[in-house]
Design brief:
The protein is of the alpha+beta class. Helix content is about 20%, strand content about 45%. The chain has a 5-stranded antiparallel sheet with strand order 2-1-3-4-5, covered by helices on one side. It starts with a strand and ends in a 5-residue tail after the last strand.
C-alpha cells in the first residue's frame, strides 16, 4: 500500500512516500522520517486509498507520536 507524508502548509504535496505492507509499518516509517528530517513538528500521514489518516507530531524533547484521526467525521 502506498503511504504519503504531508506538511501542514502543503496538504496536496507529499514530502515523502513509501510503499509498505500495513498501517503499523507506515506509522513506524513516518515516525523515523519525522525524527530524521528537521523540517517541522507536525505532519499528516495518509494512505493513498484514504484508509488511514493520522497526525504525526514531534515534541521539543525529541519524541514522536502518531495519532490516528477518525474517518467517520
Amino acid at each position: 500500500m502506498l503511504y504519503n507524508l504531508y506538511a501542514p502548509g502543503a496538504p496536496d504535496e507529499a514530502l515523502a512516500q513509501a510503499n509498505l505492507a500495513n498501517d503499523f509499518a507506515a506509522e513506524q516509517w513516518a515516525r523515523q522520517w519525522v525524527l530524521t528530517h528537521q523540517v517541522g513538528d507536525e505532519f499528516t500521514l495518509r494512505r493513498a486509498d484514504g484508509g488511514l489518516d493520522a497526525l504525526v507530531m514531534r515534541t521539543r524533547a525529541g519524541q514522536c507520536y502518531v495519532m490516528t484521526r477518525s474517518l467517520a467525521a
